[in-house]
């Protein structure tokens, strides 16, 4: 999974995607930190001051959705997502290249479905207030939809990079 990290001077789109991925990871990490703070407050309020706040559950679910969705998208960018990498290493070069081209397309399809249905579910529930917090009940679908869209973007980038590399066995 090691990859050449040197970039050509004219590779501005790639650098922009790297910066976007870094920002996505920072937001996901911040959401995880926020999740710890909110849950810590919930436990303290419930067991120490005996006054459990109602807003902690919906906020926790939103933070969890942010961390999960954006973390998954960042995993697509860094190629640290679920895969059968050992199996792929033992394939013939032509089949390996076909798999390397197919995997990003599968991720694009999955990401597009997640983005589309996440957006539909978000819009469908915007008028419903969440129990315990003054935010729409469907707000948890916003990070899901954004994460799916980012998966599409990052997987398309990976697909283009695979297309640009010469197949194994050809001269470089």
Describe the structure in your own words:
The longest helix has 36 residues, at 12-47. Helices cover 69% and strands 0% of the residues. It has helices at 12-47, 56-77, 85-89, 93-124, 141-164. Helix 1 runs antiparallel to helix 2 (56-77), helix 2 (56-77) runs parallel beside helix 5 and helix 4 packs antiparallel against helix 5. It has 5 helices and no strands. The chain has one domain. By secondary structure, the chain is an all-alpha fold.
Q: Briefly note the structural class of the backbone.
A: mainly alpha
What is the element string, with H for helices and E for strands?
HHHHH
What is the typical, i.e. mean, pLDDT? 87
Shape: elongated
Q: Radius of gyration from the CA trace?
A: 20 Å
Q: Classify the helix fraction into a percent range.
A: 55-70%
In DSSP terms (H or I, runs of 4 or more residues), the helix count works out at: 5
Number of strands: 0
Strand content: under 5%
Terminal residue distance: 20 Å
Total discrete domains: 1
How does the SSE layout of this entry go?
Blueprint: H1 12-47, H2 56-77, H3 85-89, H4 93-124, H5 141-164
Summary keywords:
172 residues, mainly alpha, 69% helix, single chain, elongated
